[in-house]
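Hi everyone, sorry if this is the wrong subforum. Our group has a chain we'd like a structural model of before ordering constructs, and none of us has done structure prediction before. Sequence below.
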Amino acid sequence: MQKKGAIQLSITTIIVIVIGITLLTLGIVWIRGMMGRLSGLTESSFEQAEKMVRESMPEGEKLWISGVSFDVDLGKQKETYLGIRNILGETQTFKIEIKSDTGDPNWILCPKEKVVEAGDIGGVPMIIKIKNAPAGETYFFTINVYDEGGNLYGSEIISITTK
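Answer:
Right subforum, don't worry. Here is the predicted structure as tokens:
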């Protein structure tokens, strides 16, 4: 009788281990697929930003944003682009800072820095997404860009109105 119980326990243990390994494998495959799609979107956003900025940024401007006023539906996102023209004579890693006295700076997602070769233009995607705020309100944001020495290179102000 004890042998039958021991065999039953062994079979149950093996089944639990097989189910666990199967679920773990499926989870890893699912996460890998999701991360792959997210990286593709990010890479695509950066490529689109570079293209848009190169085509649209006016000559002589050090800093440019593809729009200064945005209407954003709550819970939805809107993409815009920041262009940085490096006129400093050497490759720079520019720091990007978003500030606001009226809205949440986390509503605007963008990289914290951008490397731009001397004499070149760099494009950065900026995604505006507001989860919860009163509809019909307007918020102002300052986009500051600093050079490697910590000096203010340029600044732009944008407004976002919630819908």
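For your construct planning: The first helix runs from residue 2 to 56. Confidence is low (pLDDT under 50) at residues 37-41.
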